[in-house]
Design goal:
By secondary structure, this protein is α/β, with parallel strands linked by helices. The chain has one domain (11-124). The chain has four helices and three strands. The chain has helices at 11-16, 36-45, 65-81, 118-124; strands at residues 54-59, 86-89, 105-110. It has a three-stranded parallel beta sheet. Helix 3 links the parallel strand 1 (54-59) and strand 2 (86-89). It is globular.
Length: 125
């Protein structure tokens, strides 16, 4: 399956068309295969999605096509912007503190429920 990613997210237009209040703390919950990652993908790339300047994804399943496509696209964007704008960490044990995130960040914890540092995740909420 091919995923389309806009060249550079237009944060201003995205903020004007948002469907969620900001700041936002959200859980996407469902059974395996119900489309949680696809919904997340759309919230990241769609104009009506969540506006952000930096992206952090902590997941044990970054090998999924959807994450690989996001990673490739954001690597290109980082080169074009001449700064790192997305971080993909394949280990939920490498969680960073809320204070260590850049301002206006979208932080994703995918399948990190069994990690030892649950307090770090709780501090985001």
């Amino acid at each position: 399956m091919k995923y389309k990613i806009d060249p550079i997210p237009n944060i201003i237009n995205k903020a004007k068309k948002r469907i969620f209040p900001l700041p936002l703390r959200c859980l996407i919950v469902g059974i395996s295969g119900c489309g949680k990652t696809t919904l997340l993908y759309n919230l990241i790339i769609k104009e009506w999605g969540i506006p952000f300047h930096y992206l952090y994804i902590f997941s044990k399943s970054l090998e999924q096509d959807i994450y690989q496509n996001l990673k490739k696209a954001y690597e290109k964007l980082s080169v074009k912007e001449d700064r790192e704008i997305a971080y993909f960490l394949n280990n939920c044990e490498e969680l960073i503190l809320n204070d260590e995130c850049e301002p206006n960040s979208l932080v994703v914890f995918d399948d990190c429920i069994n990690v030892q540092q649950q307090q770090i995740i709780k501090d985001y909420f």
